[in-house]
Sequence to fold (230 residues):
Amino acid sequence: MNRTNPINGRWPASRPDLLQLYSFPTPNGVKISIMLEETGLDYEAHLVTLADKDVKSDAFTALNPNGKIPAIIDPNGHGGPVELFESGAILIYLAEKTGQFLPASGAARAEVLAWLMFQMGGLGPMLGQLGYFHKFAGSEIEDPRPRERYVNEANRLLGVVEAQLDGRDWIAGDYSIADMAIAPWLNALEFYGVREATGWGQHPNCIRYLERFMDRPAVQRGMNIPDRNG
Fold:
């Protein structure tokens, strides 16, 4: 590990020989803790809150200049230590490192990556904005148009997922990093209090899909890593 990275002063590693995860249990954060639990890689988790004093600190932005969780340092990367941010990039990196949850080549690999990008570019940002305008500070805005926009877009995206899941258990064939990216965001609809607004009950494939996902022991562990209570 690069011991000179300022993050090691703020969040010191007790086992610097292990992969270090810097995260918080949001939908984006748990993608990585779930993947680590699924693969069985040894790692050490550090709680980085969403407060500016953590994610915007010099220590954290030394690892992720964008100031967002999650991020990792892998002291055992191919050719040397790897410092990485962006949840989608981390999922791909871990899949390639372990040879798990991402086909090695061909159409199957391309499909998994397409659905991962669907989450990164569409489902996650849109549901995140929906949560902002429904539950958080944006809910104080009287103009109904932002909230309506994101409710409508969430409905549309859920319809895309619903159709893709018709006749299949997982989003892109076998269980993959695409599922670890998508399912936590579907689960967040309950936290945001928007299941009714988005017509969740009219998406039976999504409902069964999320139940299958949440039944996995590694998912149940990963959903609470790092412990948000410190």
Q: What stands out?
A: The mean pLDDT is 94. The first strand starts at residue 19 and ends at 23. The CA atoms of residues 146 and 230 lie 35 Å apart. DSSP finds ten helices and four strands in the chain.
